[in-house]
TrEMBL record:
GO CC terms in record: cytosol
PANTHER family linked: ACYL- ACYL-CARRIER-PROTEIN DESATURASE-RELATED (PTHR31155), STEAROYL-[ACYL-CARRIER-PROTEIN] 9-DESATURASE 7, CHLOROPLASTIC (PTHR31155:SF9)
Gene3D superfamilies per record: Ribonucleotide Reductase, subunit A (1.10.620.20)
Protein name: Acyl-ACP desaturase
Stated family: Belongs to the fatty acid desaturase type 2 family.
Length: 316
């Protein structure tokens, strides 16, 4: 190539990487398993609600889920609900043509199943107040979605590499704490999709590190340092996230150990050769930040254990 990695434009990169995207699409399609949301919902548990059907209105006693599982499912669903915003963001960055465009539409179609199945499960089992849930959906979707990375291809691809894995972890752990085998089976199926999506983006970023290492390292560092879950604009997100973290569904330790660190190791960022200038500076920043994140995770764990000990002592 006559253009150096440091000087490559976004257009240069996307043209050069299109064969990689096509290969990853083929790999994804060979691994993805067809599944149907309606098969993961216990329809026999359902009954009519109040309103035009003249059924029974929801009451808190209808739900058998713990507060932690319920809050996590609400966050997970409201996050999935904003799919139109995510589709717009990724289509803006990746485009609508060729292998890039095919992936955008395939990804969107697969993600849409997640919102369908979680909502059907919550409604049929009366796990949450359906009126409050839909009001929250309306409010959240009306806020829209603006990607923190704007229209940067490298930042966008780095973000979804981590975000897809974070979502997988959140879904799997929500299923585990639900104490409902049906819920756990459903969220395990959803998490399997998220894992394949993560692999797609992770492999794409691996190729980016080969063709534009300095630019990609800067994007990775920026994303890791500023990472927010896509549902951070949900009304009451901070309160809900604290409940979720205290339950061990998704917390700083999981974020460090099970999301960020494994992907960084897979990319080999701290062993990568050939970085110059801002690329090397970005890697140094990343190393410092990971140390800070690890320390913050340990501090959170310590405080959580102390709080649990106090609660246990009061009960005793």
């Amino acid at each position: 190539m006559s253009v150096s990695p440091e000087a490559k434009t976004q257009t240069d990169l996307m043209l050069e990487l299109e064969p990689v995207v096509a290969k990853e699409v083929d790999r994804h399609l060979s691994m993805a398993k067809e599944w149907f949301p309606h098969q993961y919902v216990p329809w026999s548990q359902g009954r009519d609600f109040d309103g035009p059907m003249g059924g029974d209105g929801w009451t808190p006693e209808d739900s058998t889920l713990s507060v932690e599982a319920r809050e996590s499912l609400i966050v997970n669903l409201l996050t999935e609900d904003n799919l139109p915003g995510y589709h717009n963001a990724i289509a803006t960055v990746f485009g609508k043509e060729g292998a890039w465009g095919y992936w955008v539409n395939r990804w969107t179609a697969e993600e849409n199943r997640h919102g369908i199945v979680i909502r059907d499960y919550l409604t049929v089992t009366r796990a949450v107040d359906p009126i409050a849930l839909d009001r929250a959906r309306m409010k959240h979707m009306q806020e829209g979605y603006d990607a923190d990375h704007g229209d940067s291809f490298l930042h966008g691809a780095a973000y979804v590499s981590f975000q897809e894995l974070a979502t997988r972890v959140a879904h799997r752990n929500t299923g585990k704490v639900s104490n409902d085998p049906i819920c756990e089976q459903m969220l395990t199926r959803v998490a399997a999709d998220e894992n394949l999506h993560m692999i797609f983006y992770r492999n794409l970023l691996s190729a980016c590190l080969q063709v534009a290492p300095d630019q990609t390292m800067r994007a990775i560092t920026d994303v890791v340092k500023g990472f927010q879950m896509p549902g951070h604009s949900i009304d009451g997100f901070l309160r809900k996230s604290v409940i979720i973290a205290n339950a061990g569904i998704y917390d700083l330790r999981l974020h460090h150990d099970d999301v960020i660190s494994p992907i960084l190791r897979k990319w080999g960022v701290f062993d990568l050769e050939g970085l110059t200038g801002d690329g090397e500076k970005a890697r140094e920043e990343l190393g410092e930040f990971m140390g800070q994140l690890d320390a913050a995770a340990t501090k959170f764990e310590t405080r959580r254990e102390e709080r649990r000990a106090r609660q246990a002592a009061r009960k005793g």
